[in-house]
Design brief:
Mean pLDDT: 82
Structural class: alpha/beta
Shape: globular
Distance between the termini: 59 Å
Number of helices: 9
Radius of gyration: 23 Å
Order of helices and strands: EEEHEEEEEHEEHEHHEHEHHEEH
Largest sheet: 7 strands, mixed
Oligomer: single chain
Length: about 325
């Protein structure tokens, strides 16, 4: 019964939240780094190997203790910085509200209203060529050097919304995290900032928590009949976590015994975040703008533009076919 969002307590008393399940693998983001802080990567790797092999002295035993929840008043989130658990980061006190789950599914079909309005991203050319419907999600992908341009686009999109819109920004990667600490960059936007963790692995898990927390706040605003816009800045840590989990499974069970070619789990992992967007019957919507970088293909992956003659084509075993009109 363990699913993403389940709260677990380990045999050593430490607690954490499940961020990914790929049977039989369960990835847990611990609430704190404990004695992992300051430990080199090699030692951390050895500890994880011990956990996976069952030589951890009971530390790997875990018990469910509930589900991850927040108690945040989304109407008072403007201009505030909180972490994935709803705790204040800016030192201005709690943004207390009613409790709601962080990991949850999107709207059911019967709850959805037709999408008949558009959300302006503040750039007329983009609004005309690729209009974004209110209650839809869009993923903007660009090379690493264009990342600042993508972030400016998201900033313009936030500024283009009406004053009644609940705007939420979550910086998921390192650059986004640093940007999260600069409130003046996002003005009155509510910010969900990941905590600094002791390792890349822990940071990837933290990014998952922040992504779902930001979406949960947007979903709560939608449930209250408000329009919400969520900016997820930096999907790379989520991609890295998925890749890491694949490596762990292949290492433990062998690549031939792992369903590496089955991408249904992969789609479910990412759609659990993005597909929570929606337009709700009776009012309220959640629109998502996600940003990510994509490395250019390696030289050997680039399609060849070299031309060939008909004789070379035939010599390679190709045949000329004629299709009758």
């Amino acid at each position: 019964d363990v699913v993403a969002g389940s709260r677990l307590e380990l045999g050593n008393g430490r607690r954490g939240t499940v961020v990914l399940t790929r049977s039989p693998l369960c990835v847990v983001c611990l609430d704190d780094d404990g004695d992992d802080a300051g430990v080199d990567d090699a030692t951390l790797a050895l500890r994880r190997m011990a956990l996976r092999s069952g030589e951890s002295g009971g530390e790997a035993d875990a018990f469910m203790v509930g589900e991850m929840e927040n108690s945040v008043d989304v109407t008072k989130l403007a201009g505030r910085i909180i972490d994935a658990f709803g705790c204040d980061v800016d030192g201005q006190g709690a943004v207390a509200g009613t409790s709601y789950k962080i990991f949850q599914e999107g709207l059911e079909q019967a709850q959805m209203a037709p999408i008949d309005e558009f959300v302006s991203v503040g750039v007329p050319a983009i609004d005309l060529m690729t209009p974004l419907g209110k209650g839809q999600s869009v993923l903007y992908v660009g090379p690493p050097e264009a990342r600042s341009s993508l972030r400016r686009l998201a900033r313009v999109a936030v500024a283009a919304q009406s004053p009644d819109t609940v705007n939420i920004y979550a910086g998921l990667d390192e650059a986004g995290n640093q940007r999260s600490q600069k409130k003046k960059f996002w003005g009155e936007t509510g910010i969900v900032a990941p905590r600094k963790r002791a390792s890349a692995f822990a940071s990837e898990c933290e990014a998952v928590l922040c992504a779902h927390a930001a979406m949960a706040h947007g979903a709560e605003a939608m449930a209250q009949g408000k329009d919400a816009l969520v900016v997820l800045d930096g999907f790379e840590p989520l991609v890295d976590l998925w890749t890491r989990s694949t490596s762990i499974l292949a290492e433990r069970f062998g690549a031939e015994n792992v369903g590496l070619g089955d991408d249904s789990e992969c789609r479910a992992f990412f759609s659990a975040v993005l597909q929570r967007a929606g337009n709700m019957q009776g009012g309220g919507s959640l629109t998502v703008v996600a940003l990510t970088s994509d490395e250019p293909p390696k030289e050997e992956e680039v399609l060849s533009t070299e031309s060939y003659s008909l004789d070379q084509f035939r010599a390679a075993g190709g045949r000329k076919s004629t299709i009758d009109p």
